[in-house]
Amino acid sequence: MLDLRLNKMMNEDILKGYEKDVERINKMIDDRSGAGNDYLGWADWPVNYDKEELVRIKKDAQYVRDNFDILVVCGIGGSYLGARCALEALNGLKSDDKLEIIFMGQTFSPNYVAQVMNYLKGKNFAINVISKSGTTTETSISFRLLKELLEKQVGKEKARRAIYATTDKEKGALKTLCNNEGYATYVLPSDIGGRYSVFTAVGTFPLACAGVDVDALLKGAQEARSDIRNKSLKDNDCYKYAVMRDYMYRHNKPVEMYVTYEPQMSQISEWLKQLFGESEGKEHKALFPASATFSTDLHSLGQYIQDGTPLLFETIINVKEPKLDIKIPHDNDDLDGLNYLEGKDLAFVNQKAFEGTLKAHEDGGVPCNVIYLDKLDEYNLGYLFYFFMRACAMSAYMLDINPFNQPGVEVYKKNMFHLLGKKGY
Ligand code: PA5
């Protein structure tokens, strides 16, 4: 479970001042009466999810595990980051699971795409293509390449049974292709946007393929939903966190830096940056979400955080119990002077680095919030995802912003399509 320690600028009086607003907005989320209300399906999805589809997802995932060596997950943005960050957080960066997962469709990089395509030559792989619109250019280009290679290697009929698609229930180019080709298809519900979709097939299919316990992930989300929507602000960590963000924004702290002490959690920060950045960054408002992985980045950005322009505050996700640990060995010569740590766990050292840094940054005037997680398992991660999604809706509504659209991302696409010579641009 999760515990929140707010930074020292926050106090009971400040929280009290927000009580009425929080109550009103919580009701707006529950009633689906705020801006973008046709995209609030995620709020109840942990209890309203499609039970039959999840059974099919788990069965198909087992088939993938039993019959393929690699699953290529092809998607971008909200159709990619949730699965990627959950997978890394849960299975680590050097997973020895029998099914290798490769992400594609999230870049135009010729180096990356060509390298992955070369790697896949002659290998036994399946594809999970994920796109709600079915027309996202990065994903479509990668899928075209993957489909061509697969069909060349195993023939059209076998390829058809190795392609799993997640898309809109009714519309879009990918849906039409699925209907024509007869691919196994899962639904990204029309009332859930990409960055709020990790509990739908967008996340659950690739995660189930990777051996993740998706029931426990959903259970964590269910628990978070029930805690958050039913508790008043004084007992509600999620809304306290949202209030703190609003207060920081209005008190000259325009940058929130997400901090983790585990490299395998750095993609969680990427997911958070998308969630908050794409949901709130509109009408020239909102916090800028940034991230760092400590202690690695203490040897780079650490200098700026301690002594640079005082524009940021930190939100640190601290995991109390690591899954794996290792002891520091004795060395007869002790030339590195490390024998004072002999027999100590690395988790102990990491924890002291956290405590020492927290004190240094707070003493240096950086407001630091800490979210303590018991451990990094499916249940806790499900809780954490829902916690942040609900906090994001709350804090966007506090800024009077629709959290569920992204009008700004169309601008670069128009220019790019014009330059690429796409018809109509
Ligand atoms: O969160 C979002 O809505 C976006 O990041 C989308 O998920 C992303 O642009 C991919 O869109 P699509 O699923 O239509 O390919």
Description:
49% of the residues lie in helices and 14% in strands. It has 425 residues and is an alpha/beta fold. The protein has two domains: 2-33 and 217-398, Rossmann fold (3-Layer(aba) Sandwich), CATH 3.40.50.10490; 42-212, Rossmann fold, CATH 3.40.50. Strands 1-10-9-7-8 form a five-stranded mixed β-sheet, sandwiched between helices. It has a five-stranded parallel β-sheet with strand order 3-2-4-5-6, sandwiched between helices. Helix 11 (237-250) crosses helix 15. Bound molecules: 5-phosphoarabinonic acid (PA5). 5-phosphoarabinonic acid (PA5) binds next to loops.
List the helices and strands and how they pair.
Layout: E1 2-5, H1 12-31, H2 45-48, H3 51-67, E2 70-74, H4 81-91, E3 100-104, H5 110-120, E4 125-130, H6 137-154, H7 156-160, E5 163-167, H8 173-181, E6 184-187, H9 201-209, H10 214-230, H11 237-250, E7 255-260, H12 266-280, E8 288-293, H13 302-307, E9 312-321, H14 346-363, E10 368-375, H15 378-398, H16 409-420
Parallel strand pairs: 2-3, 2-4, 4-5, 5-6, 7-8, 7-9, 9-10
Antiparallel strand pairs: 1-10
Helix pairs in contact: 1-11, 1-15, 3-9, 4-9, 4-12, 10-15, 11-15, 12-15
How would a crystallographer describe the biggest sheet? 5 strands, mixed
Distance between the termini: 50 Å
Low-confidence stretches: none
Q: Which molecules are bound besides the chains?
A: 5-phosphoarabinonic acid
CATH third-level topology of the largest domain: Rossmann fold
CATH arch. level architecture of the largest domain: 3-Layer(aba) Sandwich
Query: What is the subunit arrangement here?
Result: single chain
Overall morphology: globular
| CATH H-level superfamily title of the largest domain | Glucose-6-phosphate isomerase like protein, domain 1
Determine and state the CATH class of the largest domain: Alpha Beta
Count of the separate structural domains:
2
Helix count from the secondary structure assignment: 16
Helix content: 40-55%
Strand order, main sheet: write it out: 1-10-9-7-8
Estimated radius of gyration: 23 Å
Look at the structure and give the mean pLDDT. 97
SSE sequence, one letter per element: EHHHEHEHEHHEHEHHHEHEHEHEHH
The count of β-strands is: 10
